[in-house]
Amino acid sequence: MPPSSSSITESKGETEEEALYLVIQRISSGRLLVDEDNDTWINLHNQPGLVNYVAFGRRKVGSRSIHTNGGKNTLTSSSSEEEEGKSSSSAATPVSPLTKDRMMKAAQSLLTCKLATASGWHADHSDAESLVTLSSTTMASLVTIPQASLVGKCIPGDKYMKYHHQLDKDRSELYGQWVTILHHEALKLINPKKYDDKNKRGMEKYLRRAE
Can you say whether the dihedral through the CA atoms of 48, 135, 119, 125 is positive or negative? Predict the structure, then answer.
């Protein structure tokens, strides 16, 4: 099924901020290759849900828009930004960090927005329901896949993608934080009592099982 449409808007300014980029795709079932060398797969038979492709990058607080529809990205930007993209990696621009609170709000939206379906895709979206609602009637799945190309940029005439807006490797822990926050928020929304119990005993044991 085609990925859901989404939009990210950036504006020009003197500062930058770290940003979470997501593309969401609904699934009814599937297989995921997790170890190519050992041909290891995870099977999601009859487990409808969502795949969230995630990347972390920098954005200016100014006028760039990225619209995704059916997996195709459309970039709208000024010519001056193309020049800015070539030099942004070396510019000493202050960067506001991505906070846990912002990631929690994104996770809550992902879990409660009507993006998933168990019955098949309908043109009028009457089949859509949230992942939280879906999990009350069936074994729902949420798959997280890192996808650096979401913050990449290909200027006409270039042969390769450029990743000037991607965060540095020393911020790679944000991916682990995102996965942990998804676990926390899903349990909190789907089974509040179990979430409270797990909080009392600590979340580490639960997270090991969930992985």
Answer: negative
